[in-house]
Amino acid sequence: MDRNDAMTTARALRAWAEAAGVFSQGRSAGIGIARVGEAATMFGAGAEVTFTAKPITAIGVSAPPDRDPKLVIYTRRRLTKAEQATLIEQNRLGLPVEFQVALPFGVSTPTTSARFDTMFRNGRMTCGSSISVGNAREAGTLGALLRDGDGKLYGLSCNHVTGGCSNARTGVPIVAPGILDVGSGAPDVRTVGHHHRSLSFVQGDPSAIPDYRLNLDAAIFAIADGDAVSSWQGDAYDTPALVADPLEDAAVEKVGRTTGHTSGVIESELVGALRVDYNVTVFHSAEENNVFRGTVYFEPVYVLRGADNFAFDGDSGALVVRRNPIGDEVAAVGLVIGGGGNGETYMLPIRPILDRLGMSLVTGHG
Questions:
Q1: Are the beta carbons of 217 and 356 closer than 8 angstroms?
Q2: Over its length of 366 residues, how does the chain's per-residue pLDDT go in tens digits?
Q3: pTM of the predicted protein model
């Protein structure tokens, strides 16, 4: 079975889970409706009972080019060894299955302290540092420096970090460290740029939004002083100019505000839309603010996992890179948008973000 066949099988499994009421994260647009009784043709009659008690939160495909594909079924609670053994024994999907826990994903103010709030190299602030809008007690990560066709320099992060979920006004200051990390003993807060643009970020059910696949949790800000920033990711490596598509089982790294430099692997590509619930307050002045509470769906999304947490609260916006074991070549593959809280990290591929922006990654700067 090749990757396309595996994706088709995974979508059929998700369609059954949605129809049977054992998928806890909504319904996808265009994924099809399966008969409830089809569970017996996939896992046997007991599957519905198992997944009712421990609902499915996502279904992913792992199909690296050098290995046979497999499905990864994510549940809200961990299956027992006996439950897993029964499902594996009764598996009629035509490819192997692995079980992982992935909790529903929501975005709000980070509750984890920064370990690496602001990082410097040659006197310049590096990527991976803590940033936020200048008037909200928030914090996320500066993922990378970008350059447009005119040579102007920008900073890249998540929309929910510097774009206020598309509610931040153009020109609002972006500061480092993020306001949440400002305090005695921390570096003095400085304005590193001004909000410029957010990519598509439309809330609502995917069945009601024909173009929900255009949603990207990404925003850019114009850098105020190019001599004050560096393209290096902390002190770990320089941002690569090369961009590559994500591959399952590939070794990846990132540098972020909360967990610093970490490594892990791309576990799977999810089928269907990933639901993300946002609760963000955007301040415009002392008298005016907006509270964004809404659900936004994204596709495609990749799940990453490390030996420990690959990323955690406040690492949103970090650039994910893949290091080729042959030649040690480094390529950017994605942007961290957050995690579900059980060791999993969710990543959007970086290529569509750069293509939509019409910009390129900056390397060798500072």
A1: no
A2: 799 999 999 998 998 888 888 898 766 655 555 554 555 567 877 888 899 999 999 999 999 988 999 999 999 999 999 999 999 998 888 899 999 999 888 887 777 777 777 889 999 999 999 999 998 889 999 999 999 999 999 999 999 999 999 999 999 999 999 999 998 888 889 999 999 999 999 999 888 888 999 999 999 999 999 999 999 999 999 999 999 999 999 999 999 999 999 999 999 999 999 999 998 877 766 566 677 888 999 999 999 999 888 999 899 999 999 987 666 789 999 999 998 678 899 999 999 999 999 999 999 998
A3: 0.93
DSSP string, 228-279: GEEEEETTTEEPPS-B----TT-EEEEEETTTEEEEEEEEEEESSPEEEEEE
